[in-house]
Here is the input.
Amino acid sequence: MKRNSFIPVLIFVQILACFFQASAQSTKPNVLFIAVDDLRAELGHFENSSIITPNLDRLASEGISFTNHFVQVPTCGASRAAFLTGKRPSRTEELGNNIMQNEFPKKPESENPETFIHHLKRNGYYTVGMGKISHSADGYVYGYEEEVSDQMELPYSWDEFLFDSGKWGTGWNAFFGYADGENRQSMNKQVKPYEAGDVDDLGYPDGLTTQLAIKKLRELKDLDQPFFLGVGLFKPHLPFTAPKKYWDLYDEDKIPLPKNPLKPEHVANASLLESGEFNGYELGEEKAGLDKVLSDAYARKIKHAYYAAASYSDAQIGLILDELKALELDQNTLVIVWGDHGWHLGEQQVWGKHTLFENALNSALIFKIPGSNISKIDESIQESVDIYPTLMELLGISSPEGLDGDSFASLLKTEESQAGNVAYSYYKNGISMRTDRYRLTKFFRDAEPTLELYDHLADPLESVNIAAEKAEIIAELMPLLEKGNTGLYEIK
Here is the structure.
């Protein structure tokens, strides 16, 4: 009799335990993550900035905006792979755009989560994505001019993945789309690298993604578990397209020219870029290259186009944040805005991203912590692989073993900054390391010089490579750079 009477008590205890576990889970903060393609660290609230980003400025005024956040790889797919996994690249394959589509779907689900989103899903979060979070424009694996497949690029990370391709038909068509429904592929590259469309915000794909995000937030409000909502905006990635009203925010004649429009001194062309992606828009009025500098007028036009596209994305972010507040979800939602890498706007004679210079590696990063009154522009060195462990610490979730980054959660809870950090980046057969004062880059190639050193105190524009005259500084920094070598290269 005693044993039988014990069974209902045991069941009651188990029910109570489940109830308290569910209650604890429901109080965990939600996460709104917004990835913005090619958004360099030039925002309206930064010193000497000409770009207009009122919504990101407002978010920064309520949180922490980093001026010195650096990505691991200055190209979309590889940067996102490092960020999502919390791992620096250790194989050459991990430096390419297709690392996720080529490898992630082929792996069976294992104890090690494929991404931090997968880890959140395993820890009670309902995960929803839309737009470009991994490399794919809409979450599926297929080529630019192929039919959409049913293979997810991240097969284990999402409870839902959404995308509205609108008049463009597919994710990749939308990614390279113009206001009339055509795209770079359909037009055989016979297009300009910019467009001021006579349309409203819904006339380009990011407007459609924003409306999806707003609709989904309204649904998630009533969810009985915490959520992760990832929103991937395309702009300001090429082509620099935006509704005309965002172009009208700027006086093109007053847009500043690049402060360092010429190749750095004592640097091989192999360290730079011929701006091939930019030149691939074949109706552009001028071509960029290492043997020519764009005219002042055209340089201003392209910067104008980039700024307008960034302001368009900023407006979409504002709509999402307004809805978050209207639903009163802002009181328990951690917000992160992340740029997947920077972009040279004519600096060092480059129009593009694929270099190991500051302009390509430095991207936007903003955190807003619910309930926190900490607000600052933080100048400490941080890197993308740090975000995974930081997010887990903020959410009270243990990180998996083997992450390369270090949590900076404590930095988000104080007005103080943090000195002595280092950020590592990889590309073009090289490793680059950013300290508080220096950028040291070592290339594994034949073209000389293979060492580059820039003193950001004296030369923040990275205009003169001083490696040849600063052997003592090289000797001091090289052991630290070697710590960032994950096995990609044999350092001699």
